[in-house]
Amino acid sequence: MAKKKATKKKATKKKAAKKKAANQEVLLVGSKVKAAIKDAGCNTAGDALEGLNAWVHWLVQQATTRAQANGRKTVRAHDFISL
Length: 83
Description:
The chain is mainly α and about 80 residues long. The protein has a domain at about 45-83. The protein contains four helices and no strands.
């Protein structure tokens, strides 16, 4: 019986993580990312695209914050690199 409770807790955590990730629009082309990973000789985990998408959202947020702090409305390449 203890195993069933532990499984339910894990399932609940996974659902919560998916809901959080679902709130963010996907900014990636999944097939292209998977192909690049496969070309490198690796496999893609089920949560890999979600993690990468979350990181891309963070990068965009940081870059827009930097541009605004510099009095610009235009995000430029160096706004991503200068993080």
